[in-house]
Design goal:
Strand 1 and strand 2 form a beta hairpin. The chain has a four-stranded antiparallel beta sheet. Strands 3-4-5 form a three-stranded antiparallel beta sheet. The protein is built from four helices and nine strands.
């Protein structure tokens, strides 16, 4: 009981080889996607900009670490009232677990209890694969043409992947409204 309490005393977090001072947290999430767990935006991309942090993007080769302070905090993140505690952004993230503690870990949705012989978790950007998004079968011809133009503009380097993502997100909001 209480395996998640005081995670800041059980873990050490390093970002680009620099140790990050952890606030009180009961969970630590490392992400490179804009949402997880049924659409939860732990980075808080919908919230105002935070000094020293940039907007999260799946195409920037940067990994984010976010702290969660409680189960209530998870609920607030899930309904969009809050984001996680932004801890760092970097090319490499290393988590060192104090060997005196068993810590619950979830990797890509699979829960495990960290065993004594696993003391360090190294996470780094390796490679990127372009993903395609299927337009809904009931999409109008206009929607399809919009996505075709975005794809063309991205492939022709007229807009960046980040700009394409922002435009696609706005279009999805407008077309689904």
């Amino acid at each position: 009981m209480g395996a998640c309490r005081n995670m800041n005393q059980k873990l050490r977090l390093f970002c680009n080889d620099k140790e990050i001072t952890l606030p009180y947290i009961e969970g630590l999430t490392v992400i490179n996607i804009t949402s997880q767990a049924g659409g939860t935006d732990y980075w808080g991309n919908h919230l105002p900009e935070v000094k020293d942090f940039s907007q999260q993007s799946i195409s920037d080769q940067i990994i984010e670490a976010v702290g969660i302070s409680s189960s209530l905090h998870i609920g607030q993140c899930m309904i969009g009232l809050d984001g996680g505690l932004r801890l760092c952004q970097g090319k490499t993230i290393k988590i060192e677990v104090d060997p005196k503690h068993n810590v619950p870990v979830q990797i890509d949705g699979e829960p495990i209890m960290r065993k004594e012989n696993i003391a360090t978790i190294d996470i780094r950007f390796d490679q990127q694969v372009k993903m395609t998004k299927q337009v809904k079968s009931n999409a109008t011809a206009i929607e399809k043409k919009c996505y075709e133009v975005i794809k063309w503009a991205t492939e022709a380097n007229h807009i960046t992947q980040d700009q394409a993502r922002i435009i696609e997100n706005e279009l999805a909001k407008k077309f689904n409204a």
